[in-house]
Amino acid sequence: MWLAMALPTVIVQWTETLEGLMSYQKLLEEAEHLIGANECWTGMTPEAVARMRLQNRFKTGLDIAKYTAKVMRRDMDAYDNDPSKYTQSLGCWHGFIGQQKIISIKKHFKSTERRYLYLSGWMVAALRSEFGPLPDQSMHEKTTVPALINELYTFLRQADARELGDIFRQIDKAREAGDAVKERQLTSAIDDFQTHVVPVIADIDAGFGNAEATYLLAKKMIEAGACALQIENQVSDEKQCGHQDGKVTVPHEDFVAKIRALRYAFLEMGVDDGVIVARTDSLGAGLTKQIAFSVSEGDIGDQYNSFLDCEEVGAGQRSNGDVLLTRGDKVLRPKRLRSNLYQFRPGTGADRCVLDCINALQNGADLLWIETEKPHIEQIAGMVDRIRDVVPNAKLVYNNSPSFNWTLNFRQQVFDVWVEQGRDVSAYDRAKLMSVDYDGTELGKEADERIRTFQRDAAKRAGIFHHLITLPTYHTAALSTDNLAKEYFGDQGMLGYVAGVQRQEIRQGIAAVKHQNMTGSDLGDDHKEYFGGDAALKAAGEHNTMNQFAA
Fold first, then answer.
1. What's the pTM?
2. Residue 304: which of 236, 247, 358, 363 has the closest Cα?
3. Which residues are bridge partners to 467 per DSSP?
4. Residues 96, 98, 99, CA angle at the centre, nearest 5°?
5. Using CA atoms, how far apart are residues 186 and 180, in angstroms rounded to an integer?
6. Rg from Cα positions in the chain
7. Is the separation of the CB atoms in 197 and 153 below 8 Å?
8. Which alpha helices (H) appear in 312-369, and where do they start and end?
9. Residues 6+ apart with CB under 8 A from 356
10. Is 92 a catalytic residue?
């Protein structure tokens, strides 16, 4: 009987522009209309509805993937027109780390423009696997990857809600004080609000299996919010970290099948402009698991096989179990290891990288990743120049890896340049340039300046659109924890925390110093007031110790 008497619910079509939600005032008007048409919705206010709507701009991971794909495509176009507009990211292994990174970027630079998140398979393996810490060899559970994407965006969405909630509370105070000018300024800040939600480039390793497995995992990653997926051309069951030995690549047809799997996943999920990053490990990979299938001389399979380390054999030189190739009128025996892997000729890595990149771009990839053994701009540029001879707008994602000894590499680069220029280097020992003794020298300073400008210079010279560091927050967590443990458990005791952490948080304006607020206590108070009105029992009263950190 009650159901029969219930008033019909009036549905209002909420709309959103490409760049953001409709204005605060428009949302208020629509909320007022909606609530006014439903008389049984007692105790609800249009302003609360509008605010909650603004604080939850992205309803699903797919909403995020569609939005961030457009952001990333816009940035790619901007870079094509001006290589100074390169993009950057840091690898984050937890949602809180990603959240604090973007909060910090907004605080210091007032904008998140051209700043992304990177999801590192290395850090997922090392820090998120239920097996415990693992090397970067695709042994961790594949579901941890989409789970981390979801976690990152959960924290970023909460950062939106937290910052907007603070503005809403300031609006309420301005109204109570009768300050209409301040209220208008704050309302304008809401309409101009820039979300903490930024693109994530997510590492799908070598696909965790065959092309079907790659497709299934890709869908989960896209559903969680990933607009860009990075896949590498290693054998999935032999996958190694890009900076480890023993890497094994696959023929191009196998890799292209996985690129297609990613594209199909994007298209099925409605993210038509999703970004595929094709990574080649060929520079450091001397092995392949299989000989490529070739139909005719010069096709992609034949080109792949042409890099194999072979010896010519005559009819009487063949042995039981030999695998043989014909090339023209020659019969060749590829060098096969006891592991049943085949070896490439030494010195062919760069040529294979160039072929890998061109073929990937011609078969649906959007960006390239060339994994190198050192950060050397001319080495990267030498390959990119050759790729751009075929695909002029080829662009790279580049790993500014912590696996490189940046100090030693750049000091040795400067040393070598000085030798070529005929400068006196007798005061320097090239093998020991890491020493602190060289920190204040002319060579040390020049090397540091090259490190400082590496991203800018490489973006201009070597076609690098996106610079990332795979696992920086792994190292910052280790370093900061070591410093705290040394002081707290030593003579400094509690001062080790206060002087080294809390005092610095307060003085540097680190938002997380108010950790109750950061984890949502004020947001919860707002909701309690919406739901319970004057009867709400709120946590942010005068006895909340977070008030000691009031600005």
1. 0.90
2. 358
3. 88, 398
4. 60
5. 10
6. 28
7. yes
8. 349-361
9. 233, 249, 252, 255, 278, 280, 282
10. no
> What's the burial of 478, exposed, middle or buried (CB within 10 Å: 0-12/13-18/19+)?
exposed
148 contacts 230 by C-beta, under 8 angstroms: no
Per-residue pLDDT of the chain (551 residues; tens, 9 = 90+): 233 333 333 333 333 443 456 789 999 999 999 999 998 998 899 999 999 999 999 999 999 999 999 999 999 999 999 999 999 999 999 999 999 999 999 999 999 999 999 999 998 999 898 998 887 677 788 899 999 999 999 999 999 999 999 999 999 999 999 999 999 999 999 999 999 999 999 999 999 999 999 999 999 999 999 999 999 999 876 655 444 446 899 999 999 999 999 999 999 999 999 999 999 999 988 999 899 999 999 999 999 999 999 999 887 777 877 888 888 888 999 999 888 899 999 999 999 999 999 999 999 999 999 999 999 999 999 999 999 999 999 999 999 999 999 999 999 999 999 999 999 999 999 999 999 999 999 999 999 999 999 999 999 999 999 999 999 999 999 999 999 999 999 999 999 999 999 999 999 998 888 887 878 778 878 887 877 777 656 655 555 555 656 55
**Residue 247, burial from CB neighbour count under 10 angstroms (0-12, 13-18, 19+):** buried
Q: Please, is 133 exposed, middle or buried when counting C-beta atoms within 10 Å of its C-beta (0-12, 13-18, 19+)?
A: exposed
Whether 494 contacts 488, CB under 8 Å = yes
- Going from the C-alpha of 236 to that of each of 201, 211, 240, 282, the distances in angstroms are 19, 10, 9, 15
- Confirm or deny that 281 is annotated as ligand binding: no
**Among 241, 310, 353, 357, the one annotated catalytic:** 241
Three-state DSSP state, 331: strand
